[in-house]
Amino acid sequence: QVQLVESGGGVVQPGGSLRLSCAASGSIFSINIMGWYRQAPGKEREPVATIRSGGSTNYADSVKGRFTISRDNAKNTVYLQMNSLKPEDTAVYYCNAVILSSVLRADDYWGQGTQVTVSS
Questions:
Q1: What are the average pLDDT values for consecutive 10-residue runs of the chain, which has 120 residues?
Q2: Which pLDDT score is estimated for 101?
């Protein structure tokens, strides 16, 4: 079974920074797309940033210039560097990946979520 394990969440002051990590493990043949989504209380889950295997990235307008997504293919890990954090960034952040397993089955996987709280 494939698992996504997230880390790096926490509580920071406005203007602070956090770096989220998400490591995929298991019977992995390849990972096509990895990304981050977030869900604030009372709101729907929304995409934050994604990165494809070729390196192309997409960002939500609300985080452009502040967040940077990257991946280490050798480690099957995706990162989200979050700078200049704002209170409205407060949410549970979820890692997502489309993974082809060792038996060539493609599935969409989600991490368990990590809480990011931005407050003074």
A1: 94 98 93 95 96 94 98 93 98 96 89 96
A2: 85
> Which residue blocks in the chain are alpha helix, DSSP H?
none
- In the chain, the amino acid numbered 1 is Q
Nearest to 8, CA basis, from 87, 67, 88, 73: 67
Rounded to whole angstroms, how far apart are CA atoms 120 and 50? 29
Helix (H, G, I), strand (E, B) or coil at 5: strand
Residue burial 36-68, b: 16+ Cβ < 10 Å; e: rest: bbbeeeeeeeeebbbbeeeeeeebeeebeeebb
Q: Which pLDDT does position 53 carry in this prediction? A: 87
4-14 burial: b if 16+ Cβ within 10 Å, else e:
bebebbeebee
Strands in 3-7's sheet, in edge-to-edge order, are: 3-7, 18-25, 77-82, 67-72
Cα 13 to Cα 77: distance, rounded to the nearest angstrom: 26
